[in-house]
């Protein structure tokens, strides 16, 4: 089973979030871990503040003291992130870091104005595809519908002599 990239929350010294981001990005480049640690974000949002009668747009940290890291969790990546100057640790249950639920990540990215990257669609209606993940792995089916806004595809698979529609993520199917 291949490990998936997920978002993790790291705790930093308050006010050091941007330094930690810069330090971590340097470490990722120096250790060649760009294929395992993908993005480092300090969640911010634009707010309008009024000082001395003048309106000013400022970026405020949504979660002071925290930085988000999109990575594949391995002993090596965990060590690199944990030992970056300014990092005090991962948000975890005991010793094992907990990934952020996908719906929370989408909300945070949306509030920051970042659109989640959509997987590329390499197939079209009527085309045969192979299911690469999940309980129907290795089954071959025919694309019936494509839902690009949701990142989903409806595939008709023949099971027990009957056509059965399955709704799958784009990354669960590949061209035959």
Automatic annotation (TrEMBL):
SUPFAM superfamilies: N-utilization substance G protein NusG, N-terminal domain, Translation proteins SH3-like domain. Gene3D superfamilies: 2.30.30.30, NusG, N-terminal domain. Residues 4-112 form the NusG-like N-terminal domain. Keywords: Transcription, Transcription antitermination, Transcription regulation, Transcription termination. GO terms for cellular component: cytosol. Transmembrane segments: none annotated. InterPro entries: KOW (IPR005824), NGN (IPR047050), NGN-like_dom (IPR006645), NGN_dom_sf (IPR036735), NusG-like (IPR043425), Rib_uL2_dom2 (IPR014722), Transcrpt_antiterm_NusG (IPR001062), Translation_prot_SH3-like_sf (IPR008991). NCBIfam families: nusG. Participates in transcription elongation, termination and antitermination. HAMAP family: NusG (MF_00948). This is Transcription termination/antitermination protein NusG. It comes from Anoxybacter fermentans.
């Amino acid at each position: 089973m291949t490990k998936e990239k997920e978002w993790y929350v790291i705790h930093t010294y308050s006010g050091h979030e941007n330094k930690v981001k810069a330090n971590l990005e340097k470490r990722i480049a120096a250790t060649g871990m760009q294929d395992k640690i993908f993005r480092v974000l300090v969640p911010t949002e634009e707010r309008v503040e009024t000082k001395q009668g003048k309106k000013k747009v400022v970026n405020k940290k949504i979660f002071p003291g925290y930085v988000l890291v999109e990575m594949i969790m391995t002993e090596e990546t965990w060590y690199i992130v944990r030992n970056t100057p300014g990092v005090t640790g991962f948000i975890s249950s005991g010793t094992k870091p907990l990934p952020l639920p996908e719906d929370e990540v989408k909300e945070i990215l949306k509030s920051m104005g970042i659109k989640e990257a959509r997987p590329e669609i390499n197939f079209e209606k009527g085309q045969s595809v192979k299911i690469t993940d999940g309980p129907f792995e290795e089954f071959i089916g025919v694309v019936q519908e494509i839902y690009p806004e949701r990142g989903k595809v409806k595939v008709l698979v023949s099971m027990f002599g009957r056509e059965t529609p399955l709704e799958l993520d784009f990354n669960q199917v590949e061209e035959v």
